[in-house]
Amino acid sequence: MSSNFAFDAIDLATKDRDHLIHPWVDLGTVKEREPLIVAQAEGAYVYNVHGKKLLDGIGGMWCVNAGYGRDEIADAMAAQARRMAYFSPFGQIGNPPAIEFAHRLTQHTPGDLKHVFFTTGGSTAVDSALRFVSFFNNFHGRPKKKHIITREYAYHGSTYLTASVSGKPADRGNMDLETGFIHHLPAPNPYRRPEGMTMEAFCDAKVKDLEDKILELGPDNVACFIAEPLLASGGVIVPPEGYQKRTREVCRQYDVIYISDEVVTGFGRLGHIFASKNVFDIEPDIITSAKGLTSGYVPLGAMIVSDRLYSTLTDKAGRGQIFANGYTYSAHPVSCAAGMANLDIFEREDICGHVRKVGPYFREQLGTLIDLDMVGDVRGSHFMVCVECTADKEKKTVPPAEWEVGRRIFEKCQEKGLLARPMGHLVVLSPPLIVNRGQIDDAVSILRQSIVEVTGDLA
Ligand code: PLP
Predict the structure, then answer these.
(1) Whole-structure pTM over 0.90, yes or no?
(2) In the list 74, 265, 387, 426, which could disulfide-bond 275, CB 3.0-4.6 Å?
(3) Among the atoms of ligand 1, which is closest to the Cα of residue 61?
(4) How far apart are CA 256 and CA 227, in angstroms?
(5) What is the rounded distance in angstroms from the CA atom of residue 35 to the CA atom of residue 19?
(6) Is the CB of 365 under 6 A from ligand 1?
(7) How many Å lie between the centroid of ligand 1 and the Cα of residue 230?
(8) Which cofactor does it need (predicted)?
(9) Residue closest by Cα to atom 15 of ligand 1
(10) How many CA atoms lie within 13 A of 232 on its CB side?
(11) 140: helix, strand or coil
């Protein structure tokens, strides 16, 4: 990688502040802070606009699963763009990459999840899933089944509906959200379970939360339960063992559709293309996917629906009932060509096998940070791990926001060559899935050193 960068960093920073609005940005600090501008990338590394090399500890945004600089994906996109960049997916118009990719995906899905609706990303995949559920229930003459059950600290997207079913407290303050038919259960976060409660009892309690809510609302009024297998953006919350399977069973018992949001947990992050069946032994009614689906090379999402649901809509009784949901760029041929090239890499290089082998090492090494005074919890699995900082280890006290613990650690890590993701007092690591043990050691040692320094600075 050339260090001779042809970028004018000052000019770019000025234009960035003046013209580019970023997602999740603190608007009040935009003018005074220096943006991080990332200009090039290769393998597991990115280079900022000054040419500084940084180990990408966050995988872009949990998405560059196959790593950067994959010519195979770029070539597949270019070839498809030249052959046919775009055509409408509406009605019954198809294109070869979308058809082939849908077929190939269903070789990896659990049970009878055999029907794929492509979207433009994770939010639109989840939005489509929730709209599909309402279509399904209305179609079958169950218009009262409207209520959606979700969890605090969930993250499902940034459309009006998906933001409403999300439950991260920090995101819920400043914009209006739908509340009437959406219900948030407490997060199944073992770190915050009542003092002295066993994991088994905690699991019982969290499963009971779901059952109680269904009974309170009345099963005839509940449409679906939506859950990330591990809650990703809410702080890599790992529910107690058996929780996913038991909540799935509760949904089946009360005829509530179970949506497994695998936007993060899919495509190898937990060592399998889809984690629902292989890691948690569940067959959901619907899976949503995005991010690693194309390793972030181009936007794409997918809602994957079971035959049990879908086949009831496609017989003649359904004539005239239009599934009025979709996007100009649904099933985009260039995105689907990228998706197939990405899947080729996954299969040929056995990326999931690598994650199953090296992921536990990553988790274990990060786990050693628990000896630091400021670290209250290290949690996660394989290549999604979170370090929770605390002001008092015994009492598990959340550090005051003005300490800006996450941001300080992020800055220290960056100085030392690692990109980590700060979320309040949490620091998340979710690197590209190709990282090796040496790179893991580098990441852990930089993070350790950074936390030690921030602890000193705050003393
Ligand atoms: N679902 C989950 C679990 C996510 O983590 C995200 C994004 O982080 C989304 C949905 C939304 O995906 P996107 O940002 O591609 O719209």
Answers:
(1) yes
(2) 265
(3) 8
(4) 13
(5) 13
(6) no
(7) 13
(8) pyridoxal 5'-phosphate
(9) 122
(10) 27
(11) coil
Q: Measuring CA to CA, how many Å separate 158 from each of 164, 168, 175?
A: 8, 12, 11
Best of 126, 226, 260 to mutate for ligand 1, by most ligand atoms within 8 A of CB?
A: 126
Tell me which long-range contacts 355-359 makes (C-beta under 8 A, separation of at least 24). Answer: 355/268, 355/269, 355/270, 355/271, 355/382, 355/383, 355/433, 356/271, 356/382, 358/435, 358/436, 358/437, 358/440, 359/270, 359/271, 359/383
For residue 33 the two structure tokens come to 């802070």
For ligand 1, whether the C-beta of 122 sits within 6 Å is: yes
- Evaluate: CB of 384 within 6 angstroms of ligand 1: no
Does position 370 have pLDDT exceeding 80, yes or no?
Answer: yes
Q: Coil, helix or strand for 119?
A: strand
Whether 4 has a pLDDT exceeding 70, the answer reads no
Q: To test ligand 1's pocket by mutation, which of 62, 118, 123 has the most ligand atoms within 8 angstroms of CB?
A: 123
Pairing assessment for the beta strands 45-48 and 53-56 based on DSSP bridges: antiparallel
Cβ(59) to ligand 1 under 6 A?
Answer: no
At residue 3 the predicted structure's pLDDT band, cuts being 50, 70 and 90, is low
What pLDDT does 5 receive? 75
- State the amino acid at position 334 in one-letter form: V
Whole-number average pLDDT of the chain:
96
